[in-house]
Amino acid sequence: MLARLRPFLPTAVLLLLIVYFALNAFSGDRGLLTSNQRDETLIAKTRELAQVRAQRNDLEMRAHLLRDTSLSADLLEERARSLLGFADPRDYVIRMKP
Description:
This protein is an all-alpha fold. It has helices spanning 2-5, 9-27, 35-65, 73-84. The protein has one domain (20-98). It is rod-shaped, with a radius of gyration of 31 Å.
């Protein structure tokens, strides 16, 4: 019986490989059916990147204002009060849980 099926064995193996790759092309991690999920992930990551860039620009500006060449008195006073835990009598202090 094996002798009768031997000529069809390479064809069967090739057919199984084609079916395997076709299924992965449609439903794999990078398949055609998951393109919507990838697009949603890309949009979410783009938004996150924009937020991180805005945060970085803010931190760079604050760091620039604390340098010796361009010292901002208001920012220096704010940082000193924050680090030392002091408050001006005219300030409203709102305590928040860490």
